[in-house]
Amino acid sequence: MIILKSPEDLEIMREAGRIVARVLAQLARAARPGVATGQLDALAEEIIRSAGAEPSFKGYRGFPASICTSVNEQVVHGIPGARKLSRGDVLSIDVGVFYRGFHGDAAISLPIGMVAARGRRLLEVAEESLARAVAVVRPGGYVSDIGHAVQSYVESQGFAVVRDLVGHGIGQKMHESPQVPNFGTPGNGALLRPGMTLAIEPMVNSGGHQVRTLADGWTVVTADRSLSAHFEHTVAVTETGADVLTMEA
Amino acid sequence: MAPQALTIGRLVTSGRGRDQGQHYVVVGILDRNHVLLSNGSSRRAGNPKKKNTKHLFAHAKLLEEVGDAVVRVTLARLGEGERQA
Predict the structure, then answer these.
(1) How far is it, in rounded angstroms, from Cα A68 to Cα A77?
(2) Which CATH number characterizes residue A198's domain?
(3) Of A25, A128, A178, A200, which shows the fewest CB atoms inside 10 Å?
(4) Contacts of residue B3 in chain A, CB cutoff 8 Å?
(5) Least CB-CB distance to A166: which of B3, B33, B57?
(6) What angle do CA A53, B59, B25 make, to 5 degrees?
(7) Which residues in chain B have Cβ-Cβ distances shorter than 8 Å to A231?
(8) What is the interface pTM, i.e. ipTM, of the complex?
(9) Cβ-defined contact of B32 to A184 (cutoff 8 Å)
(10) Domains in chain B, number
(11) Which residues in chain A touch residue B58, judged by CB atoms under 8 angstroms apart?
């Protein structure tokens, strides 16, 4: 069941989204060569809790940290720890917060120091694919319009879209209906209506689209160990289009 | 975090058709838009129901095994809270 949010719900979700955006901005400044991913996790938890929110991910089906940090061939759900970032790494950071009964969820990917040309292009294409996905969200459109926007752009640029993991509805639960795949033909799936809130999250690989999950049960890596990037926003469908909730004020 | 797309073992609920509201477990994937569903009793793994994924709601619950007995017991035990897990 797709849960439509009231204007009051959306105001709380916007607050949750602001906290997420603030955390990501601060982590992006802190992520430098030599910094351990576990340090970023500790910093994120501190910012989230001092804002009066809780990390959505911590304890979610046993996930041990507040954020996901996925480096290079890691697509998503990397567990922060002792690994230190190196110059040339591509780092994806995924943050979720639970604030006054609602979740906000967003992710960014960024270069650590100088990254080789293919990696820089990967980051540009992945970020642009999210922008294009958000741009097609409008009442009267369909969920698969989003995936089509991502897939058609990403593949035209010579990159691949992950199919085994999807975006999702979001609200009082972190994962609500509908699923929001990053591929497909337009005009399918649920009708978009004002008040729907979606976490749109393209995962883009520089090699093939296939992925594997590592033995830790969480970390998803590209099957061919090519680089991967991940961008995500929580957006609300409005009367006229889309409103990105995970933005700083 | 990004949930898994429809995969074998996924608990789903029909959202369209005469079986609307019925729960099933995905036992096969036909193509990008169609899956095979079992409820372990009237629709067993040997005679699964074909369904368009558009007409399904996926739940987070994922069964490791999709034998008829496991599916039947799992669906029978579904409480309102567990279904939302």
Answers:
(1) 5
(2) 3.90.230.10
(3) A25
(4) 165-166, 168, 175, 179
(5) B3
(6) 160
(7) none
(8) 0.80
(9) yes
(10) 1
(11) 177, 179
pLDDT at B61: 65
Q: Which residues of chain B make contact with A221, given a CB cutoff of 8 A? A: none
A216 φ/ψ angles, rounded to the nearest 5 degrees: -70, -5
CATH (domain of B66): 2.30.30.30
Strands laid side by side in the A242-244 sheet: A176-180, A167-169, A197-200, A233-237, A242-244
Q: Taking CB atoms and an 8 Å limit, are A164 and B7 in contact across chains?
A: yes
Is A249 a member of any domain? no
Share of chain B above pLDDT 90, in %: 39
The pLDDT-based confidence of B38 (bands split at 50, 70, 90) is very high
- Whether residue A1 lies inside any domain: the answer is no
Query: Per CB distance under 8 Å, which residues of A are interface residues toward B?
Result: 1, 56-57, 60-61, 63, 68, 76-77, 94, 96, 105, 163-168, 173-175, 177-179, 181, 184, 188-189, 201, 203, 230
Contact B3 A189 (CB under 8 A): no
User: Residue A213: inside a domain, yes or no?
Assistant: yes
Do residue A77 and residue B2 have CB atoms under 8 angstroms apart? yes
Q: What is the CA radius of gyration of chain B?
A: 12
